[in-house]
Amino acid sequence: MRNKENRINTKVIRKLSHYIGKYKRDTIFTWILVLIESICEVLVAFFTGKIVNVFNSLSETPSNITQVYINCIIVASLAIVAATTGILAGFYCASASVGLSKNLRKAMFNKIQEYSFSNIDKFSTASIVTRTTTDVTNVQFAFQSIIRAVIRAPFMMIFAIIFCFITAPNLAWIYLVIVPVVFFILLLILFKAHPLFVKIFNTYDKLNEDVQEDVSGIRVVKAFNMVDYQTSKFYNTSDNIYKNFVKAERIVAFNSPIMNLSIYSAIIIIALVGSKTILTSLGSKMAVGDLTTLVMYVMMIFNALMMVSMVFTMMIISKNSSERIVEILDEKPDIISKENPITEVKDGSIDFKNVFFEYHKGKEVLSNINFHISSGDTLGIIGSTGSSKTTMISLIARLYDVTKGEILVGGVNVKDYDLKVLRDEVSVVLQKNLLFTGTIKSNLLWGKIDASMDEIKSACDIAQASEFISSFPNKYDTQISEGGTNVSGGQKQRLCIARALLKNSKILILDDSTSACDTHTDSLIREGLKKYRPDMTKIIIAQRILSIKDCDNIIVLDKGKIVAFGNNKQLLSSCDIYKELYDSQIKAGGDFDETN
């Protein structure tokens, strides 16, 4: 199990290091500068000991005062070099760590764009947000610590121990015993605290999810007077994070006392053994300056380890964060373009041939779907809630792939097309309409980035959006708030239809996209589509018979199966489900005109 975990960690490190990219130069510069800084600091201690030894010998050889001045100049020069390289190392370290976080966020965002709906279903929205923000920040700080503080520690220890053997070989064993023991204890703390931080970040996902739900559904929360319930749910999640953090920090808190105990133990041992050596040997084996140097080395080595122990906290947190980031980066999109794909869609004809689909293995939501739509025809789809209408049309643009069977567009299997080409020729106005923060015009340009104002106005005319747009003071430059909350449901639907029309694709799918519009506006939209886009294949999913009764063909869907296929007249005589809906909506309504 331990070997498996180590392999995973190695894989994670290798994966993340790939995203250092052009900032490898800054990373290498940091290491070089830290190396120079460490050497200078060790040499400062070494020459300080020399100064003490020379001072002690001045009573016997006054001429050695020149050596004191020379050593002082050397110490001052080394200190200046150490300070300069330390500042430069900090600059390059910051550049490398921030560059890594920038590359990681970019890579994660790009990867998420490649996901199919089934890939996205594996991660909650809140989890994706946490991974691209908090987790990346944790890795950034950990990387910054690693290339500066953690790299500095081994350099400092290696050089200090080397000079210990040079200065006092008979006392160097103290470092060889204490340092490995301290390092082992730090690793033990790491493995004890890590599982708690895993829990914490999984709970962070839940916390973000609670906040997201509350903010996006704030109108519903207030309407049902559920503020206290939402607040209680948030407090419970937040309290769980607090309790786990306290447990983890209690373990990590052992770092500081252990380090202090190690420092003082080393100083006491060196002082006792060193003093005895000086006294018994009358200074022949060790001078007072050498003892001073050893004490300075103790402080250097254990201060470096102290820094590492504090950094360990960040590393413990980042270990889980880095694993969560790699999960996003390693997720393989299950819908991709094949090699040498077809790059042109001939027409808007659609064929479903023995299509089966299931979200989860063993649970079919579509069964044996077969039908044909000629290019330019209009197909209506009606069925009860949960009959998989939206699922069926999602297969056309390969938002999901079929489990069995095949779907042809323009006579070609959709899996043979380049994904971008296929989706450019399929415009979908989903059941849940979404507008982005910006102006009305910027939202419409999602359909065609270089569309002229004439094209925009023409699409808005067909979608029956021009009238209400012209009523706004700023017309097409009217600001849309996040999610389009400052326009009505019907206005939002018409803007989304206009946006889809601007793509000028061969297939247009309206998934219950006029449900918030009145029947007259709905009728005008359908007439505009028929008049101005006769060559476009249109699929209309609706709950209202009026929205689909004039379609060339209509599918009645029930529990993922086609129970009837035909035009309005044929279905009235052959399908009880359709006739029942027709009678309840058209005849019982009284105010509907069947010829409309």
List the helices and strands and how they pair.
Layout (H helix, E strand, L loop, with lengths): L1 H16 L6 H33 L8 H50 L2 H5 L3 H43 L5 H44 L1 H6 L3 H26 L2 H27 L6 H43 L19 E11 L2 E11 L4 E6 L5 H6 L9 E6 L2 E2 L5 H6 L1 E4 L8 E2 H5 L8 H10 L3 H5 L8 E2 L8 H13 L5 E5 L7 H14 L4 E5 L11 E6 L2 E6 L1 H7 L1 H12 L9
Parallel strand pairs: 3-10, 3-11, 6-9, 9-10
Antiparallel strand pairs: 1-2, 1-4, 4-5, 7-8, 11-12
Helix pairs in contact: 1-10, 2-3, 2-5, 2-10, 3-5, 5-6, 5-10, 6-8, 6-9, 6-10, 9-10, 14-16, 18-19
Walkthrough of the structure:
α5 runs antiparallel to α6 (173-216) and α14 crosses α16. This protein is 62% helix and 11% strand. The protein starts with a helix and ends in a 9-residue tail after the last helix. It folds into two domains: 2-330, ABC transporter transmembrane region fold (Up-down Bundle); 340-425 and 536-596, Rossmann fold, CATH 3.40.50. With 596 residues, the chain is of the alpha/beta class. The radius of gyration is 36 Å and the shape is elongated. The strands form three sheets. It has a six-stranded mixed beta sheet with strand order 6-9-10-3-11-12. Strands 2-1-4-5 form a four-stranded antiparallel beta sheet, with no helix packed on it. β9 (507-511), α17 and β10 form a beta-alpha-beta unit. It has helices spanning 2-17, 24-56, 65-114, 117-121, 125-167, 173-216, 218-223, 227-252, 255-281, 288-330, 389-394, 419-424, 440-444, 453-462, 466-470, 489-501, 519-532, 568-574, 576-587, and strands at residues 350-360, 363-373, 378-383, 404-409, 412-413, 426-429, 438-439, 479-480, 507-511, 537-541, 553-558, 561-566.
